[in-house]
Design goal:
Blueprint lengths: L9 H40 L5 H28 L7 E4 H12 L4 E6 L4 E4 L1 H18 L4 E10 L2 E8 L6 H4 L18 H11 L3 E7 L3 E9 L4
Parallel strand pairs: 2-4
Antiparallel strand pairs: 1-3, 4-5, 5-7, 6-7
Helix pairs in contact: 1-2, 3-4, 4-6
Length: 231
Amino acid sequence: MEEKNYIFTKKQLNFERYQAISKFASIASHDLKNAVGGLSNIAYYLSKSLKVENETQKKMLELLSKEVNNLNKRITEILDMTRVKQVTKNNCDLKNIILLAIAETQVPTITIEQNLITAQVHADPEKMKQVFTNIITNAKEAMKNMGIIRIDMQIISDTIITTISDSGVGMKPEILEQCFDPMFSTKLANAIGMGLSVAQQIVEMHNGTIKITSEPVKGTTVIVSLPLRKD
């Protein structure tokens, strides 16, 4: 029997890995949600039924409730990041989508310089907002919540090109090469590492492209290209 050689591109391998992670995350998150739901009920019962007068005990109950809520939020985030099975496209203005992403991620110590223009696209508004929210969040974290992010939009032919640049620490070539890999992250704490992988999946489902350039110390630039809506 003739032996077949299967050669997979990095993009194909990433997609297969992403699919496997998504399936695992969906199953694991369902089980975790049930367990956290039980903890939430216990925390509520204890807070209502016990007459806690000791200040330390009160703080422990408050901490329990807070951490249960944090777990619920993190599980929801994981599910959101791995659910990119389909998009619901509508006619929308990409400028408005980016403005919503900016509003969700803005912090007082970061300056976001904008050069935005109206650009009609046929896209899923929520999914596209997730793309720009992920990119801006990465930029914010790379600058440790202090610095400048610049967002520029320009139309070339039938394509709207959005460029997001930050003044952060930048990435070495070996890190840059892996930035779209599912679960890869340079963050040591609270890192899921699906942000850019999910952004890439969404952009490609809109027949667009996403590219990243970066240099250590000089910062990172992300370029998202999407087709303009055809009337």
